[in-house]
Specification:
By secondary structure, the protein is mainly α. It has 2 domains: about 5-90, Rna Polymerase Sigma Factor, Chain: A (Orthogonal Bundle); about 95-175, Arc Repressor Mutant, subunit A (Orthogonal Bundle), CATH 1.10.10.10. Helix content is about 70%, strand content about 0%. The longest helix is centred in the middle third of the chain and has 26 residues, at about 70-95.
Length: about 180
């Protein structure tokens, strides 16, 4: 069971590990490819695979699982979605322009306070504007603009047509163009 970290190897004995062990042997490469298609950062894939196997180890009675491959891939999709959701929540709390922070830290007197306040105000306005969009429009816009997904990838993830992705994106951009970006 080389897929498990040493701390988990001790736990992975007996009946509980049979399903996870079989999964590791049979679906390891497919699971890796499956998660690699969904994640933009390769360094996260191994952690997600580890989490999938941890969840598989928690299964008390795998006899009721009719289609192990489907169960494993669904578990992997849920793990990936959980990871993405947590990452987005972390990003929602604070958006920092590292170039601005670096400049201010190197030249504290050069940076006018009102310019910084203006940037913070603009970020708040953008957050408010995004919050007014329908959830599907938000998702499409953020997946494309922030996360760098292509239309095809967005369509596959959201289970809509590419044409729908284009329409949602155009609608979201139009709504953002109509926002009054003046001072609050």
């Amino acid at each position: 069971m080389s897929f498990l970290r040493p701390a988990l190897k001790a736990k992975a004995t007996g009946v509980l590990s049979k399903f996870a062990g079989d999964a590791a042997k049979s679906y390891s490469m497919e699971l890796h490819r499956f998660l690699a298609r969904r994640m933009h950062r390769p360094q996260d894939i191994e952690d997600l695979i580890q989490e999938v196997y941890i969840r598989l180890l928690k299964i008390e009675n795998a006899d009721f699982i009719r289609n192990p491959r489907a169960y494993i891939m669904t578990t992997a999709a849920n793990v990936a979605n959980d990871f993405i959701t947590k990452a987005r929540r972390a990003q929602d709390h604070l958006v920092v322009d590292s170039a601005v922070v670096e400049h201010v830290s190197e030249n504290p007197t050069d940076y006018p306070t009102d310019r910084l306040a203006s940037q913070i105000s603009t970020q708040k306005q953008l957050s408010n504007a995004l919050a007014k969009l329908p959830p599907i429009h938000q998702a499409v816009l953020l997946m494309h603009a922030r996360d760098g997904y292509k239309y095809e990838e967005i369509a596959a993830r959201l289970k809509v047509s590419i044409h729908q992705v284009e329409r949602y994106l155009a609608s979201a951009k139009q709504a953002l163009m109509e926002v009054d970006w003046g001072r609050e």
